[in-house]
Design goal:
The complex is a heterodimer. Chain A contains 13 helices and no strands. Chain A has helices at 2-20, 28-33, 36-39, 58-70, 78-82, 87-99, 111-125, 130-133, 137-142, 147-153, 172-183, 191-198, 202-214. Chain A starts with a helix and ends in a 6-residue tail after the last helix. Chain B is built from eleven helices and 25 strands. Chain B is globular, with a radius of gyration of 22 Å. The model of chain B is unreliable at 1-28 (pLDDT under 50). Classes of the chains: A mainly alpha, B alpha/beta. The complex binds flavin-adenine dinucleotide. The site of flavin-adenine dinucleotide (FAD) has 37 residues of chain B, from β2, α3, α10 and β22.
């Protein structure tokens, strides 16, 4: 039985060779569609621990994927998958997701935690996660390296790419997992981020996650 | 006799009359004479129907599915173990139909006429320009001596199609006395969901350990070794279910006796269980076989590598478990990825555009305890005219289970996302 099966694959492979000669390489949409099984159609996630990709800045997506690929950013599945893509593939997917309309997570958030998280945000997060985590997309489109940019890009300068994701409306569970990873050292962060992050207790992190998630979600 | 548009609407009948003609406000109505028919509203078919409509609203899409709802096989092993509800796994078609202007026909396709480009259902015939079929699997009952397709699965459930069979196996395991023996018997590959049997062993053993600790589970595997994620499953069994699971490779069952719940390995050695989960050898869904879409092996459908067009009949595309898709495992995620590429290429072909090479992903999560999952994953592309896993991509979870708790959390979101994509 097993042997017969193998034979079939070979035969089909040979047939298919002829057919695929004129086919174009996969488009950005085709590459990105495949991510939908886990991240939702067009990168709008319905799963509480799975980040939405729709509307993420291109530069953030590229940096994230390359770090998953090298192992610098810890992951469960993403690192294994990122290894399957070239730089050009990653750039194409980044452009695709950046073009998609972001849709905020639609789960409930805790009003008390949102309020607490807002206070923390205004004290120490807002300098990088601009505009309540919505990231002032116009600024990035304008590409002017001005006073505003220096807030976040102080360590690197604008050319090395913007690592700051759009996290407004992201799933709180995902944000919490990431903050915990920063805190316990499995995910690396800049000195500047470490200064802000290390001050946060587990409950603070929960609060900040709820605050960002609330940024377009219904507050309960 | 093929139905034109008007007759087709009649055929849809009262049940479907409430469906909107097109879902998107402001969509141009599909042009008559450009119709894609999709058979099967599971992991492949729903996505193919949706993406064709998304990519070209001028194409009319009719999705034919025999059931009003689809029950996901993924995560159904957790239902058997009592840690998940069937409702988590059940999707309907109303939102999909409304959002994308897909016509859903709840009916069974009984024949395909490739020359006339028609499918035959219990209620009539429907013409197509291109047909996409994702009928999943059926069983090769005839290869098992003593197996009666109607009565045997009611006594020896396969639970390899989710729904009533899943609940039957769950009930049998629950009503078994402590100290009893559960047997799982798996056929030679290829079968749907390579890690599925080993996940099932974990889930049933987990239930037994908690509720009936003196019981045993024997996994009779026709294959010479664990087919998927072997080191991880071996470790999970050693770590958590050492005194419960006994794994016996190279035990191909060729005869069953439902009355005594006995399985005969290669016709000789008889093994009796209190609960017998016998999974027969598989092939493409019956409609693919009866329509002559299977290849020389008489079981699975050979297709062109990126369009998924049958190499036997033109204008018919086969995706999902039924298709021979190179290195891709028969999985729900694979079917999802294939459906998207197939839809893109079907739309390209119907618009006289160039087709594209395949690119896709597969990720399969398997639960090993109530709080831990492992996974296998890979990225697939076309090389030398076949679908292959990209060199160095993919692989298994870390062997020390260091990621297993987090993977359990992500697995939950995988289920939510993939079912949402299929049903909205
Ligand atoms: C126990 C178990 C666990 C699994 N776990 C996972 C997992 O964790 N992850 C994963 O990715 N995959 C998993 N799978 C595999 C997954 O279920 C299949 O690979 C997937 O369902 C294949 O999709 P498909 O579209 O080919 O078939 P299906 O999803 O089975 O859909 C086929 C549909 O076609 C309909 N149909 C068939 N013939 C006709 C006809 N003639 N007329 C009308 N309708 C028809 C059927 O009613 C059905 O709804 C698992 C499978 C099992 C058994």
């Amino acid at each position: 039985m097993a042997k017969k099966w193998y034979g079939t694959i070979l035969a089909v492979g040979a047939l298919a060779l002829a057919a695929s000669v004129q086919a174009a390489p996969p488009s950005a949409a085709m590459l990105a569609n495949a991510c939908g099984g886990c991240h939702g159609a067009r990168g709008v996630s319905a799963g509480p621990s799975m980040p939405s990709l729709a509307g993420q800045p291109k530069a953030y997506f590229i940096v994230a994927m390359k770090r998953f690929r090298s192992g610098e950013r810890p992951s469960t599945v993403m690192g294994r998958l990122a290894k399957g893509y070239t730089d050009a593939d990653i750039e194409a997917m980044a452009a695709f997701f950046a073009r998609q309309k972001p849709v905020p997570q639609n789960g409930p958030v805790d009003a008390r935690l949102v309020e607490k998280g807002a206070a923390i945000y205004y004290k120490q997060c807002k300098y990088c996660h601009l505009d309540n985590g919505r990231l002032w997309r116009q600024i990035h489109q304008g590409q002017d390296y001005d006073k505003q940019c220096r807030n976040c890009h102080a360590d690197y300068g604008p050319d090395t790419g913007d690592e700051t994701p759009m996290i407004a409306g992201q799933w709180p569970k995902y944000l919490k997992i990431q903050m915990d990873a920063f805190k316990d050292g499995t995910r690396k962060m800049s000195k500047k981020k470490a200064k802000a992050m290390n001050a946060l207790s587990p409950e603070d992190r929960e609060a900040v996650a709820n605050f960002y998630a609330s940024q377009t979600a219904e507050v309960r | 006799m093929a139905l034109d548009r008007r007759n087709f609407l009649k055929l849809l009948g009262a049940g479907a009359a409430s469906l909107p003609l097109t879902g998107h406000a402001g969509d141009a109505p599909p042009r008559p004479g450009r119709r894609v028919v999709v058979i099967g509203g599971g992991f492949g078919g729903t996505i193919a129907a949706k993406y064709v409509r998304m990519l070209d609203p001028a194409i009319e899409v009719v999705l034919i599915e025999r059931n009003r709802q689809h029950v996901s096989c993924p995560f159904s092993n957790q239902v058997i173990a009592g840690i998940r509800q069937m409702s988590d796994l059940t999707i309907g078609y109303d939102k999909l139909a409304a959002n994308y202007g897909i016509r859903i026909l709840c009916d069974e396709v009984t024949a395909i006429d490739p020359a006339a480009r028609e499918v035959v259902t219990h209620s009539g015939k429907i013409g197509y320009d291109r047909l996409i079929i994702s009928p999943g699997i059926d069983f090769r009952f005839d290869e098992i001596e003593g197996y009666d397709p109607a009565s045997t699965p009611e006594i020896l459930p396969h639970a390899w199609k989710a729904g009533a069979q899943t609940l039957l196996l769950k009930k049998q395991v629950e009503s078994m006395a402590d100290g009893g023996t559960v047997i799982i018997s798996m056929p030679l590959t290829p079968f749907r969901c390579p890690p599925g049997p080993y996940e099932r062993a974990c889930m049933i053993a987990m239930y037994l350990k908690k509720n009936k600790p003196r019981s045993k589970l024997i996994l009779l595997d026709a294959n010479p070794d664990i087919v998927s994620a072997g080191p991880l499953f071996t470790r999970a069994w050693d770590t958590y279910y050492k005194d419960i699971i006994e794994y016996l490779p190279a035990k191909r069952v060729t005869r069953v006796d439902a009355r005594t719940k006995t399985l005969f390995v290669e016709g000789v050695e008889g093994i009796q269980g209190d609960v017998v989960n016998f999974v027969p050898p598989q092939r493409a869904g019956a409609i693919a076989v009866s329509s002559g879409l299977v290849g020389a092996d008489r079981n699975w459908c050979p297709v062109k590598v990126s369009t998924f067009e049958s190499t036997i009949h033109n204008n018919i595309h086969v995706i999902g478990d039924a298709a021979v898709a190179g290195a891709m495992p028969k999985a729900g995620y694979s079917a999802n990825a294939q459906a998207k590429v197939c839809a893109m290429n079907v739309v390209a072909l119907m618009n006289g555009r160039e087709t594209m090479d395949f690119a896709g992903i597969n990720v399969c999560y398997s639960a090993i305890t109530e709080e831990e999952d492992i996974s296998v994953a890979a990225v697939y592309k076309v090389a030398q005219g076949n679908i292959v896993a990209v060199h160095d991509s993919g692989g298994m979870s870390p062997i020390d289970f260091s990621a297993a708790r987090l993977e359990h959390v992500y697995a939950e979101s995988w289920l939510k996302n993939i079912l949402t994509e299929m049903s909205t």
